[in-house]
Amino acid sequence: MVDVRRVDLPGIGVLHSFDTTDALEISVVAHRAGVRDLLVRHAQSDEPVVTARLETDEAHQLAELLGGTRIIESIADVDAMPGVPIGWVSVHDGDAVDGRELGSVDALGDGTVQVIAIVRGDRVHASPAPDFRISAGDMLVAAGAPDRIAHAFRAAGAPTAEHEA
């Protein structure tokens, strides 16, 4: 698995970067205004080899060509909002929430945590309805106080949140 570094850039947005096996560093600066700067440089250099500014629709198209989903952008957008902590967790075979409708999981509907999206494969189901059936392989994305998110995921029988922002 690739380690992605995240750096807040006050007044600008968020920088995400990772190193490739070819000794390149690929970085994306997600500006609060919506544009993305793509930078590629040799891992040991300060000078980029390639830079490109992408408008929102261009960034979406590149993500689709690379086989990504838009949930990471959505998470980054929510994560960038002050005072809106989020967390997410993957559902595995046999988890207590596997096969259940979202609205039937009391721990996720107590009002302290809001499931804001469910990612299934390469599709994002934003604001899922209470009758949305959770399946193994889904990623639940929730907003709320970090301790309430962790509590809700544990009480729902899902593993501990994989990320809390």
From TrEMBL:
Domain RCK C-terminal: 73-158
Gene3D superfamilies linked to this entry: Regulator of K+ conductance, C-terminal domain
Gene Ontology MF term list: monoatomic cation transmembrane transporter activity
GO BP, one annotated term: potassium ion transport
A Pfam family recorded for this sequence: KhtT_N
PROSITE patterns per UniProt: RCK_C
InterPro entries, sorted: KhtT, KhtT-like_N, RCK_C, RCK_C_sf
Name this protein carries in UniProt: Potassium transporter TrkA
Organism: Agromyces bauzanensis
Origin organism lineage: Bacteria, Bacillati, Actinomycetota, Actinomycetes, Micrococcales
